[in-house]
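Figure 3 (text version): C-alpha cells given as input.
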C-alpha cells in the first residue's frame, strides 16, 4: 500500500474543501490562494451526497471531475471522502425508517446532518452504492492520496433506539453471550426481577421509570460503537476491493473527555489514524457536558498524546482543527496572533505528520457560517490569512520530521469503556469522570517537562503487557472497570520493573460491572497491599485534609495497609482520619507500587509525581525555565527534534544545541524563547 503522504515535500497542510458552496470564479481563486498558502492536501466531498446523487442511482459527477482535475493540476493531493456522512433529502423522504430514533422514541427529521440510524439496512445499502460509484470513478485519479470514510462517525448519531437497532442489539448480545443465561449472569438480572428467558425480551435501554441496569447500558454502548465501526468497515471493504493500494482513514474526535466510540478499538482498522480537535474554553458548553478548561492548551497536549496512543505510536494526521473561533460554544473565542501556529506545532510535536483545518474558505451561509477558516470572510487581505501563509511555509520546512515518532518513559493507561461506565446513573460519586485525574496528572508531568504517552486499553488487545512493560512509570488513573487481562498486564509490567501509580476508584469492577468482593480495589489489592473497606466521596466544595498538608478533593476512603506498605500520608480529619491516603510498596522486582486515595492539590500532586519519576529514574525531556512545552520526536536513524513551545507571558530558556527549523538558525547551548514563541530544533548528535 502506498503512503498517503508520498510526493509531499513537507508535512501535509490543508483543509476540508467544499467547492460546491461557491461559484466557479471563486473556485478558480481558491487554487491561486492554495498555492500561496502552500496547501498540499484537501478533503473533498464530505457533505456532497445530495449533489453527487441527486436522485437514487442517478449520479452527477461532472462538476466533481472538474474539481479533482483542477486540484491535481495545481499539485494538490486529495483526501477523497465517501460523502456518506449525511443522507440526502430523497433518502429520508423515501425511507424515513432509516432515520435515528432517540431515547424517548422520537424519530429525528431531515434537516441537519448525521440523522441516519447506524443499523439501518437501507442506509447501509444506499451508502455502499455511492461508495462503489466513487471508487470506480476516482480510484485511479492522480490526485487521490487517501480515502476519507464518512465524517466524524457517531458525532450526532452515536445511539439509536429504533426497532431495527433493537433487533441488531439482540443479535450482538447473542454473539457476545451465546445463551440468555450467560447474559442474565453478566447483567445481574436477579436484581429488580429483570431476568430474561429469551433474547427477544431484551430491548434497548431507552427511557424507563428510573435507574437502568448499568451493564445493559454499558453493553448497548459497546454495541453502538461496534455498529458504527461496522459501517466504517463496510465502506472500507468496498474501497479496498476496488482500490487495494489506497490507504483508508476516517476522522476521529479524540479529546480528553472520551466520546461514545471506542477509538482504541477503532484505531486497529485504520491505515492512518486521523483526528479532529478543537479547543474548549473555560466557560464550558452544555452540549458537550458543560466541559471547559482553565488551560485549553493542556487539554490539547493530552488529546494529541492520546491520539498517538490510538495510533499505537505511529505518525497520525490532524484532519481538522481551527484557525480561530469555532461556532458551537456559548462564547466562541478568537485565537490571538501566533496561537494558530503554536497549536498546530503542539500536534506536530506529538506525532502528527499533517496539519489540516475545517475549513478552507469560511462559509457565507449555513449552520457553520461563523466557524473560522483558512480563508476568512475578510479574505486574502487579512492578518489571519497571512498567518496561514506563514504556517504553510513552516510546515514545508518540517518535511524532514515525517515518519519520526515519540516515545516517553511515562505512560497513562486509559479506556473508553471506563468513560462510559463512570457516566452511569448510579455511582458513588458523579464528581469522578474517568479522564479528569488523568488530565491533571498529564498536565503536572508536562509542567515538569516530563513527557507522557497515553495508551488506551483496547488499542493493545494482544500485547498490552509488553507495551506497558516498556515504560519506567505506569500511571493507572481512575480505571474503575478493570478486567482480568488488564489487571494481569499491569502486574506483569510491575514484575518486569515498571513503577506503578494507581489512583482511587481503580480496579473496582470487572467487564460486567460486577464489584470485586473482599475489599477494594479488587483488581489491584494484592499488587498495592491496600484494602479499602468503604468509600467516602467528598461533596463539591468540601476538602479532605491529609496529615502532610495536602488538601484532597473529590475522594476519601477507609483503607488499611499491609505490613510491607509504607504509608506516606494519612487522612487527618473526619470519618477517614488516620487511614492511609498515599502509600508505596517495594516489589520483588525492585519497582515501587504507589497508591493515591484522593485527588490532591496541584502542589502535592506535582511533588508526588516528581518522587515517582525520581524513584524510577525518569528525567525531563530537557532543562527549561518557565511554562515551556517540551516534546522530542525521533527517527529510526537516530535523528531527534526538540519542540519547545513557550505558552507563557515571559521569556524562557531551554538547554539545547542544534538548528532551529522555525527561525532557520543555529542555536545552543541555550535557546532563548520569547513569550508565545516556538522552536523546532534538529539536535546535534552526541557523536558529532
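Below: residues designed for each position.
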Amino acid at each position: 500500500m502506498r503512503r498517503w503522504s508520498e510526493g509531499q515535500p513537507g508535512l501535509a497542510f490543508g483543509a476540508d474543501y467544499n467547492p460546491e458552496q461557491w461559484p466557479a470564479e471563486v473556485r478558480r481563486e481558491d487554487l491561486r490562494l492554495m498555492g500561496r498558502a502552500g496547501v498540499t492536501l484537501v478533503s473533498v466531498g464530505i457533505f456532497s451526497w445530495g449533489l453527487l446523487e441527486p436522485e437514487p442511482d442517478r449520479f452527477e459527477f461532472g462538476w466533481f471531475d472538474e474539481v479533482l482535475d483542477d486540484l491535481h493540476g495545481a499539485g494538490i493531493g486529495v483526501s477523497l471522502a465517501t460523502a456518506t456522512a449525511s443522507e440526502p433529502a430523497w433518502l429520508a423522504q423515501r425511507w424515513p425508517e432509516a432515520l435515528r430514533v432517540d431515547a424517548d422514541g422520537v424519530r429525528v427529521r431531515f434537516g441537519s446532518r448525521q440523522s441516519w440510524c447506524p443499523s439501518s439496512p437501507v442506509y447501509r445499502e444506499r451508502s455502499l452504492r455511492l461508495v462503489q460509484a466513487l471508487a470506480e470513478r476516482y480510484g485511479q485519479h492522480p490526485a487521490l492520496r487517501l480515502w476519507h470514510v464518512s465524517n466524524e462517525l457517531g458525532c450526532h448519531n452515536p445511539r439509536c433506539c429504533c426497532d431495527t437497532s433493537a433487533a441488531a442489539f439482540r443479535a450482538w448480545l447473542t454473539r457476545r453471550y451465546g445463551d440468555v443465561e450467560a447474559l442474565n449472569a453478566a447483567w445481574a438480572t436477579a436484581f429488580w426481577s429483570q431476568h430474561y428467558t429469551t433474547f427477544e425480551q431484551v430491548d434497548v435501554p431507552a427511557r424507563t421509570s428510573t435507574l437502568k441496569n448499568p451493564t445493559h447500558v454499558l453493553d448497548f454502548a459497546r454495541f453502538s460503537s461496534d455498529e458504527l465501526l461496522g459501517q466504517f468497515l463496510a465502506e472500507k471493504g468496498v474501497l479496498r476491493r476496488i482500490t487495494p493500494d489506497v490507504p483508508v482513514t476516517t476522522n476521529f474526535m479524540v479529546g480528553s473527555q472520551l466520546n461514545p466510540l471506542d477509538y482504541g478499538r477503532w484505531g486497529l482498522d485504520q491505515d492512518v489514524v486521523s483526528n479532529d480537535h478543537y479547543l474548549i474554553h473555560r466557560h464550558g458548553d452544555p452540549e458537550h457536558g458543560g466541559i471547559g478548561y482553565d488551560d485549553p492548551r493542556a487539554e490539547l497536549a493530552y488529546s494529541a498524546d492520546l491520539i498517538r496512543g490510538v495510533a499505537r505510536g505511529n505518525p497520525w494526521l490532524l484532519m481538522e482543527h481551527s484557525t480561530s473561533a469555532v461556532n458551537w460554544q456559548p462564547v466562541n473565542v478568537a485565537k490571538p496572533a501566533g496561537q494558530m501556529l503554536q497549536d498546530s506545532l503542539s500536534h506536530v510535536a506529538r506525532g502528527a505528520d499533517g496539519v489540516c483545518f475545517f475549513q478552507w474558505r469560511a462559509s457565507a451561509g449555513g449552520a457553520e457560517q461563523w466557524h473560522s477558516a483558512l480563508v476568512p470572510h475578510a479574505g486574502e487581505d487579512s492578518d489571519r490569512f497571512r498567518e496561514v501563509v506563514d504556517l504553510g511555509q513552516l510546515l514545508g520546512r518540517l518535511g524532514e520530521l515525517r515518519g519520526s515518532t515519540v516515545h516517553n518513559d511515562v505512560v497513562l493507561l486509559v479506556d473508553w469503556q471506563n468513560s462510559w461506565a463512570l457516566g452511569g446513573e448510579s455511582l458513588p460519586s458523579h464528581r469522578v469522570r474517568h479522564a479528569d485525574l488523568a488530565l491533571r496528572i498529564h498536565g503536572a508531568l508536562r509542567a515538569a517537562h516530563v513527557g507522557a504517552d497515553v495508551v488506551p486499553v483496547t488499542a493493545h488487545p494482544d500485547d498490552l503487557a509488553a507495551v506497558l512493560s516498556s515504560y519506567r512509570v505506569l500511571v493507572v488513573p481512575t480505571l474503575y472497570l478493570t478486567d482480568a487481562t488488564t489487571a494481569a498486564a499491569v502486574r506483569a509490567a510491575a514484575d518486569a520493573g515498571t513503577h506503578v501509580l494507581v489512583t482511587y476508584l481503580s480496579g473496582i469492577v470487572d467487564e460486567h460491572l460486577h464489584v470485586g468482593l473482599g475489599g477494594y480495589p479488587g483488581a489491584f489489592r494484592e499488587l498495592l497491599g491496600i484494602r479499602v473497606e468503604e468509600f467516602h466521596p467528598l461533596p463539591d466544595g468540601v476538602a479532605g485534609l491529609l496529615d502532610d498538608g495536602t488538601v484532597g478533593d473529590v475522594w476519601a476512603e477507609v483503607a488499611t495497609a499491609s505490613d510491607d506498605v509504607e504509608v506516606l500520608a494519612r487522612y487527618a480529619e473526619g470519618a477517614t482520619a488516620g487511614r492511609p491516603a498515599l502509600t508505596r510498596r517495594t516489589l520483588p522486582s525492585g519497582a515501587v507500587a504507589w497508591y493515591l486515595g484522593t485527588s490532591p492539590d496541584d502542589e502535592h500532586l506535582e511533588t508526588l509525581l516528581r518522587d515517582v519519576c525520581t524513584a524510577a529514574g525518569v528525567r525531563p525531556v530537557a532543562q527549561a525555565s518557565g511554562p515551556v512545552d517540551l516534546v522530542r520526536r525521533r527517527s529510526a536513524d537516530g535523528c531527534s527534534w526538540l519542540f519547545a513551545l513557550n505558552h507563557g507571558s515571559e521569556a524562557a530558556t531551554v538547554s539545547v544545541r542544534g538548528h532551529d527549523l522555525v527561525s532557520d538558525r543555529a542555536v545552543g547551548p541555550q535557546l532563548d524563547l520569547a513569550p508565545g514563541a516556538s522552536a523546532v530544533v534538529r539536535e546535534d548528535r552526541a557523536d558529532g
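The chain is about 30% helix and 20% strand.
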